[in-house]
Amino acid sequence: MEASTEFDPWSPGFVADPYPAYARLRAAGRVHWFAPSTQWLVPHHTDVRALLRDRRLGRTYLHRFTHEEFGRTPPPAAHEPFHVLNGDGLLDLEAPGHTRIRRLVATAFTPRTVSDLAPTVHRLAGELVDDLVSDGGGDLIAKVAEPLPVAVIAEMLGIPAADRNLLRPWSADICGMYELNPDEETARRAVRASTEFSAYLRDVIAHRRAHPGADLISALIAAHDEGDRLTEQEMVSTCALLLNAGHEATVNTTGNGWRALFHHPDQLAALRGAPALLPTAVEELMRYDTPLQLFERWVLDDIEVGGTVIPRGSEVALLFGSANHDPARFPDPGRLDVTRADNPHLSFGAGIHYCLGAPLARLELTASYGALLHRAPGLRLLAEPEWKPGYVIRGLRELLVEC
């Protein structure tokens, strides 16, 4: 099936509510060609989950092929700062590089490490919510959703508090390149942000090399200096990815989730009446309106999906938002249910690229939702929010509330 009539990621109406179109895609088949982005769309939960684990697909192809061998045009030379920064991070690496770097970084995200962070995360969330309440409300995203994960991941990496205001703009500009068919202005901003962010991180790494501390950057330097595994570019790329991924998804999950709760007052009332439901509710909010709607994979060897052969050199677009609303896996998927216990959503991915920071994200979300439910019991929506134009990373411009 040609998907152009159903799938329109550049349309504000589609971005605001892609779920009816997803239902039509699922009903029409298991895989669909989308000519505008030259991708195969995969909308079903079973297929998305399986392909995330299938090693015939990869986030990159450069570990096996040149651009020319793979039938692809190399990116413009002017874009090199972005691709160098992005290409040496966990998100776009495959084994053995991915395995090596993930093993090093994983020590910062163990259940024990995250558990040790819990008092700090809950304290920060409480302080931010108290400020929101004392102001009588405001933009929930700017006042709570954004500063909490930025503060947490920056603290883990040892980024000075005075510099943390730099992180969100850099991250937003870099993440613009993850959208479908980014234009040249988006690329220009991403290149500039990549250059500035890389230079900043190299300075931080140099300082930590001379003055090591108890932070993750110091730990990565120690491994590097022992001749073990990490180049300096890998350190820069890893830190940039942790800072970007460490807050982009959490910010949008918070905003999208509160919008969903405000639109389902019965579920908000149930959650306020039974705070013990919070961990289950967080999973449901991630399923119901996931901030990452699409995740791409290159086809390294021919695959077959639903009788359609997808040849090597193709790109598949795994539709997380559709998979999370697939009625074959989630009964009544369009209903927000904070008590939904059987909830194998794919918002954190699957396979070797499963989100390394998932335990930390769950902690941050539980802390911020919990603080808002407890300290702002009268929280209400003041105005229907607008969606940002991005589709792949999907979130709100602002969320105006009153306490």
What does this structure look like?
The protein has 403 residues and is of the alpha+beta class. The protein has a single domain (3-402), classed as Cytochrome P450 (Cytochrome p450), CATH 1.10.630. 50% of the residues lie in helices and 8% in strands. The strands form 3 sheets. The chain has a 5-stranded mixed β-sheet with strand order 1-2-8-5-3. Strands 4-10-9 form a 3-stranded antiparallel β-sheet.
Brief rundown of the structure:
The protein is an alpha+beta fold and 403 residues long. The protein has a single domain, classed as Cytochrome P450 (Cytochrome p450), CATH 1.10.630.
Give the full name of the CATH homologous superfamily. Answer: Cytochrome P450
Give the N-terminus to C-terminus distance in angstroms.
48 Å
Q: In terms of quaternary structure, what is this?
A: single chain
| Strand segment tally | 10
Overall outline: globular
Number of helices: 16
| Helix fraction bin | 40-55%
Question: Over the alpha carbons, how many angstroms does the gyration radius reach?
Answer: 21 Å
Largest sheet: 5 strands, mixed
Count of discrete domains:
1
